[in-house]
Amino acid sequence: MAELAGLKIVPGYLARPQQEALLEELRDLVRAAPFFTPVMPRTGRPFSVRMTNCGPLGWVSDISGYRYQPAHPATGKPWPPMPATLLSAWQELAGYPHPPQACLVNYYAAGARMGLHQDRDEEDFAAPVLSLSLGDEALFRIGGTSRRGPTRSFRLASGDALVLGGEARLAYHGVDRILAGSSSLLSDGGRINLTLRRVTPPSEGAPDEPETEMSRAP
Asked: Is 82 within the bounds of a domain?
């Protein structure tokens, strides 16, 4: 298949010490906003991944549908702020002048996967989706903007960054499987995927990450 404009892969974007430091921050984050298991709309079928969020908004899926909201569905508390490392990655890789509003934190155990889908619950498709991987390698699959179009697969390793912008912003993509034991970063194995997104256009006045958070990014 032809190369998608706006698809960018940055192998080893985070070095091992940065990965370990970010993982420690995520442990604190998960204590404040515990992992939960989203379910499919209408059917209530559980996802194979567990997730949480950080930032002003967080993505959730339950029996009533997909949506972004400012609070954790179980605790009712606001999502924790994004770590500075994530905001710095957005500044360096996104090529977009406004901060991300949500970061999905997905945990893939050894048997977890994610079917082909588009990220289209956002109102602002001008902003890219930025993904960072921690832990075991994932076999990542991406196609075009048609579900039945050709796809190709490649591995995403711990520390790799992936940007879906431009034509690739609405490309169908998913995770076919996790390559158990391919990384020693997570003591219990598995993979953490951090996905930064802009939800609304800047003029909409929806909550942004505070400027003080952005200024702290190295």
From this structure: yes
